[in-house]
Model the fold of this input.
Amino acid sequence: MDFHFLPMEERVSNAREGLIEQGFQELHSKMEVDLAFAKKGTTLVFVNSVCCSGEDIARPASAIALKSEKKPDHLVSVFAGQEKEATERAREYFEGYEPSSPAIALMKDGKCIKMVERSEIKTESIEEIASKLQSMFEEYC
Done:
């Protein structure tokens, strides 16, 4: 069955599992976000969602990018529309970026240094998004 026609509970479950399989830790509260973002080093933050650009482009692109030799020290996710408190707190750290989901942010020592926003994810291919992420990893990780 096509992902887009699944009941919402299954879509959410599939979206969560897709990132957990890649090694992302889910953040469910403001406190969990603050603790994760306080860690030294680089943190990749995936703002998860059930929209098609998340399923069709963003999650596959992150899976490809994370096969690189250089990659972030930490992988975390917040789920827009599900863990609203955690998502709102994460977005407070994304200075200079409008809220969007899906989105993929690279943090360094608690500061957002780069983000791939929904507008890019919707208009570019999996390979283009994976390449952007790999370039970010090369430069900052």
About this structure: The CA atoms of residues 13 and 50 lie 9 Å apart.
